[in-house]
UniProtKB/TrEMBL annotation:
<feature type="region of interest" description="Disordered">
    <location>
        <begin position="1"/>
        <end position="23"/>
    </location>
</feature>
<feature type="domain" description="HD/PDEase">
    <location>
        <begin position="57"/>
        <end position="256"/>
    </location>
</feature>
<protein>
    <submittedName>
        <fullName>dGTPase</fullName>
    </submittedName>
</protein>
<dbReference type="InterPro" id="IPR023293">
    <property type="entry name" value="dGTP_triP_hydro_central_sf"/>
</dbReference>
<dbReference type="InterPro" id="IPR003607">
    <property type="entry name" value="HD/PDEase_dom"/>
</dbReference>
<dbReference type="Pfam" id="PF13286">
    <property type="entry name" value="HD_assoc"/>
</dbReference>
<dbReference type="InterPro" id="IPR026875">
    <property type="entry name" value="PHydrolase_assoc_dom"/>
</dbReference>
<dbReference type="InterPro" id="IPR006261">
    <property type="entry name" value="dGTPase"/>
</dbReference>
<dbReference type="InterPro" id="IPR006674">
    <property type="entry name" value="HD_domain"/>
</dbReference>
<keyword id="KW-0378">Hydrolase</keyword>
<dbReference type="GO" id="GO:0008832">
    <property type="term" value="F:dGTPase activity"/>
</dbReference>
<dbReference type="GO" id="GO:0006203">
    <property type="term" value="P:dGTP catabolic process"/>
</dbReference>
<dbReference type="InterPro" id="IPR050135">
    <property type="entry name" value="dGTPase-like"/>
</dbReference>
<dbReference type="InterPro" id="IPR027432">
    <property type="entry name" value="dGTP_triphosphohydrolase_C"/>
</dbReference>
<feature type="compositionally biased region" description="Polar residues">
    <location>
        <begin position="1"/>
        <end position="13"/>
    </location>
</feature>
<dbReference type="Pfam" id="PF01966">
    <property type="entry name" value="HD"/>
</dbReference>
Length: 441
């Protein structure tokens, strides 16, 4: 792979055109389009780990995404500065700010496809098709590849779908779409090699397979098999930014909520702080817990960014050749300290009562919504009359109703649209709508 092609500013469905805004690159436009989009705004009321209402300092998907984007921008610029020195021919058309903007935009969008109720929401949506009689009803009405999509809801693939839906008009550059896709392969992939990080999950549904093929070919990503490609190099930095933030921020939230003691959190943070240990003395002059945890978090993030960017640059040739396929955070010098944080987080944070309660709610609410609305979609598609389901059809967004009516017999397409509707809800909207249609509110 070559950087000139990997930094393509061409947009999906459009021919290459010159940038008409000299003060704002195409990649900066990508960032702005995402931050003003409706799917991004919905992240403010989607659970990261902890329930939302009680504590204003607990992270939501929105604050998490903004922080990941900030770290991603810094990683991109650090890497871009050295890459431009190594490849001086790029300087005529690109700057280190392009690298930063691509990673920042892709990082900003990285959680757009996540459903309500945290990661448990993904399992709840999948379980509906795997276990629920209404979900199983559709199994023989779709292909094996389509059933693979439905029974393995994947937030990354849903995010790619959102970024390419015409209704949002995002039309992002190929470079940003490539960097966004951490898992450039489909759900139905019999030759999947799970030892490769890029094939651990999947990055697009059958409905977007041809769109990603266009992206991969335009960027000249190295093909694998069955419409799979190797990763865009900058996807490693997007993943690293997410890995850095979620492990550290979840620990910060856990400490703020009293799930982890300050002494234990400090020891865990200090395990990540390698270059900046001399700055730890400042902790003695800070008085409040948020100040101390915030300072430790800043030092840890700074050192992890140094480690991950250095590791990326040391493996640049292997990454461009498609021979490096592991998470940077899993191979950086602080990997053991990160693993210890994740271990403690699982024990004391992710299994906290409030977290378990919200996940349990998700397993009730989301399949319940799918049961009612997939039936409403089926009736709409087949012209079946039912007062109850005609009312539910009116609760669907107008564009989804019209799309279902325009595609008679397209069962997979209908199920994808209904899943778009349910997975796109905020936590509060999902819970409120479930109560209303079940007669509880």
């Amino acid at each position: 792979m070559i950087w000139h092609q990997l930094l393509s500013s061409q947009r999906t469905g459009q021919k290459p055109v010159a940038n008409t805004e000299p003060s704002r690159s195409a990649f900066e436009q990508d960032y702005d389009r995402i931050i003003f989009s409706h799917p991004f705004r919905r992240l403010q009321d989607k659970t990261q780990v902890h329930p939302l209402p009680e504590h204003d300092f607990v992270h939501t998907r929105l604050t998490h995404s903004l922080e990941v984007s900030s770290v991603g921008r810094s990683l991109g610029k650090r890497v871009g500065e050295i890459i431009l020195q190594r490849h001086p021919e790029l300087k005529a058309t690109h700057s280190l700010f392009d690298f930063g903007a691509i990673v920042a935009a892709a990082s900003l969008a990285h959680d757009l496809g996540n459903p309500p109720f945290g990661h448990a929401g993904e399992d709840a949506l999948s379980d509906f098709f795997i276990h629920h009689p209404q979900g199983q009803f559709f199994k023989d009405k779709v292909s094996d590849a389509e059933w693979g999509d439905l029974t393995r809801f994947e937030g990354n693939a849903q995010g790619f779908r959102i970024l390419n839906k015409n209704q949002y008009g995002l039309k992002l550059t190929f470079a940003t779409l490539g960097a966004f896709t951490k898992y450039p392969c489909p759900a139905w992939f019999p030759k999947r090699d799970k030892t490769l990080r890029s094939q651990k999950k999947f990055g697009f549904f059958e409905s977007e397979k041809e769109i990603f093929r266009e992206v991969g070919q335009a960027l000249e990503l190295i093909p694998a098999a069955d419409c799979a490609f190797v990763r865009h190099p900058l996807a490693f930095l997007v993943e690293a930014a997410d890995d850095i933030c979620y492990s550290i921020i979840d620990l910060e939230d856990g400490c703020s909520l009293g799930l982890v003691s300050y002494e234990e959190a400090r020891a865990l943070f200090e395990g990540l702080i390698t270059k900046n240990k001399t700055k730890l003395g400042k902790l003695d002059h800070l008085h409040s817990l948020p100040e101390k945890i915030g300072y430790l978090r800043a030092l840890a993030i700074g050192d992890l960014m140094d480690e991950c960017s250095s590791l990326f640059l040391a493996n640049e040739d292997a990454i461009l050749a498609g021979k490096f396929d592991q998470a940077l955070a899993d191979h950086c010098p602080s990997r053991d300290a990160l693993k210890e944080i994740i271990k403690i987080s699982i024990e004391k944070i992710y299994r906290a009562r409030t977290v378990v309660e919200i996940e349990a709610a998700g397993h009730e609410v989301l399949p319940g919504l799918l049961q009612e609305f997939t039936t409403a979609g089926w009736y709409l598609m087949n012209g079946t009359k039912s007062r109850k389901y005609q009312n539910l059809q009116l609760l669907l967004p107008e564009d989804i109703r019209s799309d279902i009516e325009r595609q008679p017999g397209q069962v997979y397409g209908m199920l994808r649209l209904i899943t778009d509707f349910v997975s796109g809800m905020t936590d509060r909207h999902a819970l409120s709508l479930y109560r209303k249609i079940k007669g509880m509110a």
